[in-house]
Amino acid sequence: MPFKRYVEIGRVALVNYGKDYGKLVVIVDVVDQNRALVDAPDMVRGQMNFKRLTLTDITIDIPRVPKKKTLIEAMEKADVKTKWENSSWGRKLIVQKRRASLNDFDRFKLMLAKIKRAGVVRQELAKLKKENAS
Amino acid sequence: MAAKRKTPVKSRNPDLIRGVGKYSRSKMYHKRGLWAIKAKHGGVFPRHAPQPKAPAAAEKPPKFYPADDVKKPLLNRRKPKPTKLRASITPGTVLILLAGRFMGKRVVFLKQLPSGLLLVTGPFKINGVPLRRVNQSYVIATSTKVDISGVNLEKFDDKYFAKEVEKKKKKGEGEFFEAEKEVKKKLPEDKKEDQKAVDASLIKSIEGVPDLKAYLAARFSLKSGMKPHELAF
User: Fold this and answer.
1) B1 SS3 class
2) Which of B106, B142, B212 is nearest residue A103 as measured by Cβ atoms?
3) Which of B88, B127, B211, B213 to mutate to test the interface with A (most CBs of A within 10 A)?
4) Shortest CA gap A44–chain B (Å)
5) pTM of the full predicted structure?
6) Which GO terms describe its molecular function (chain B) (predicted)?
7) Chain A partners within 8 Å of B211 (Cβ)
């Protein structure tokens, strides 16, 4: 019931609307009740409404409004990228992106692989059923 | 008429902007060496004796003068170009046919014909699509490419695909009442040979890629949840 992820300086968030959709950004300052100053290694530091952000579990240790260099160093130290890519949320997004970029031929190969796997599973199941029945 | 040059004349006077040359008339006179030609011929420009004109045939006055002036329509000098080919369609691309007898079939693109239509083949052994012409608008281009280097396509053009002209039969009374036998037109042997020749090297390169043969043999269809505007082909 209580909140687990707080808006704080150093909180890593995912942008869920707008030009930077899908990017991971770090909250470096709070402007007012609705907006935060947000920064990422590959973008210009700017303000963003909280409604455009979804907080993640990752935080990094930075002073308020750090220089770009300090920000990048802190992100490397906390290993934000690997933590994100290993989290279940991050992995889901990667899979979604991969599925959306599939070629028509890729989708065909995927279908063949699914059928093959289902066949193997069904064989094993039949074997187990037979063992149980006897 | 002066003798024709082997290479077209290249202007010695480059344009500063359109309509304005870099060199003046006197400078160009010097550049072209007209002073040297004059000097060679003793201060006079060489002149050819006028060639005897062929005697013009005596024109007969016309028999009929029309009462009103009839306007001649303007000349149409337009030469149609083949349709611009989409950048995603290159020789060897796998295309999905969207209409016609073979709709949904995945097919290999060979080349664009002068009429603008695309020359396409199944290959015939794999999915039953022969050498065929197809319009660009009825096709989805996928990003899968097949190696097409071993194929000779020079003999195929629009005339190859023209319909055979049947000789007109004179309508006799007897023939009217006879039931017209529908003879199914057989495909000439040389067309079958052409198909085999084109497909031979194609099939080899297709079998080099795993699953590609089965892919070309299967038809494309939209399944539940597939949104065409979100799919990447």
Assistant:
1) coil
2) B142
3) B211
4) 30
5) 0.73
6) RNA binding; structural constituent of ribosome
7) 105, 108-109, 112
Widest CA span in chain A: 72
Q: What is the 3 state secondary structure string of chain A? A: CCCCCCCCCCEEEEECCCCCCCCEEEEEEECCCCEEEEEECCEEEEEEEHHHEEEEEEECCCCCCCCHHHHHHHHHHHCHHHHHHHCHHHHHHHHHHHHHCCCHHHHHHHHHHHHHHHHHHHHHHHHHHHHHHC
* Cα–Cα distance for residue pair B13/A113, rounded to 1 Å: 69
Of A100, A109, A112, the CB nearest to B232: A100
User: What is the mean pLDDT of the segment spanning B58-76?
Assistant: 85
DSSP state of B219: B
B22 Cβ contact partners less than 8 Å away, ≥ 6 residues apart: B13, B14, B15, B16
Q: Pick from B95, B230, B233 the residue to mutate for testing the A interface (most A CBs within 10 Å).
A: B233
pLDDT of residue B171: 61
Question: What sign for the dihedral angle of Cα A69, A72, A76, A78?
Answer: positive
pLDDT for the residue numbered B3? 60
* B65 secondary structure, DSSP code: -
Yes or no, beta carbons of B233 and A102 under 8 Å apart:
no
pLDDT for the residue numbered A37: 96
Q: In the structure, what pLDDT confidence band is assigned to residue B169 with cuts at 50, 70 and 90?
A: low
pLDDT band for position B214 (50/70/90)?
very high
| Cα–Cα distance for residue pair B112/B134, rounded to 1 Å | 10
Q: Which positions in chain B touch A101 (Cβ < 8 Å)?
A: 232
ipTM over 0.95: no
Q: Is the dihedral of CA B61, B65, B71, B77 positive or negative?
A: negative
* Contact assignment for A108 to B214 by CB distance below 8 Å: yes
Query: If you search the block for the tokens 């080919």, which residue do you land on?
Result: B85
Read off the tokens for A52.
């455009």
Q: Which of A99, A101, A108, A115 to mutate to test the interface with B (most CBs of B within 10 A)?
A: A108
Instruction: Please tell me the distance from the alpha carbon of residue A57 to that of residue A11, in angstroms, as a whole number.
Output: 8
CB pairs under 8 A between A and B: 32
Question: For residue range B177-192, what is the model confidence (pLDDT) as tens digits?
Answer: 555 555 667 778 888 9
Percent of chain B at pLDDT exceeding 90:
46
